[in-house]
Amino acid sequence: MTIEESQRNIIDEFSDIDDWMDRYACIIDLGNELEPLPDELKTPDRLIEGCQSRVWLDAEKADDGTIQFRADSDAIIVKGIISMLVSVLSGHTPEEILGSDLHFIDDIGLSEHLSPTRSNGLLAMVKQMRAYAAAFK
């Protein structure tokens, strides 16, 4: 599945949900589905700087050249947000990740419904994922 197709799936999932409390519940559900990051990977070097909550991000380059992301957070909404980013970007090449336009964030209205500190955290998560992609390129 392409990055665009993954984004479209998320947009479609949120399109029938009008109430933002229900959208937050959906984001929390997505976070609950995220495979927990093992405790031994929750190290300071994997913490994302700029997030109010603690968010750990791990990335590995697979033999086929794609990047596999794993993440976790101690905040339920943030865990849902990082789970969406992981589902969209994981399994793609560094070039695909670096060339992607992550428009689903705006398309589902997420950016306008986050507090300033969460918005900064979201930007920090995207920036760190792109930094891993650049490093693996």
Describe this structure in words.
- With 137 residues, the protein is mostly helical.
- It has a single domain, classed as Alpha-Beta Complex (Sufe protein. Chain: A), CATH 3.90.1010.
- It has six helices and two strands.
- The chain has a two-stranded antiparallel sheet.
- Strand 1 and strand 2 form a beta hairpin.
- The two termini are 20 Å apart.
Termini separation: 20 Å
Rg, nearest Å: 14 Å
> In percent terms, what proportion of residues is strand?
5-15%
Reported for the largest beta sheet, the result is: 2 strands, antiparallel
Provide mean pLDDT, rounded: 94
CATH class: Alpha Beta
What's this model, at a glance?
The chain is mainly alpha-helical. 52% of the residues lie in helices and 10% in strands. The protein is built from six helices and two strands; from the N terminus they run ααββαααα.
Please describe the structure with a list of short key phrases separated by commas or semicolons.
137 residues, mainly alpha, Sufe protein. Chain: A, 6 helices, 10% strand
Show the helix and strand layout.
Elements: H1 3-15, H2 20-33, E1 55-61, E2 67-73, H3 76-89, H4 94-98, H5 104-107, H6 116-136
Antiparallel strand pairs: 1-2
Helix pairs in contact: 1-3, 2-3, 3-6
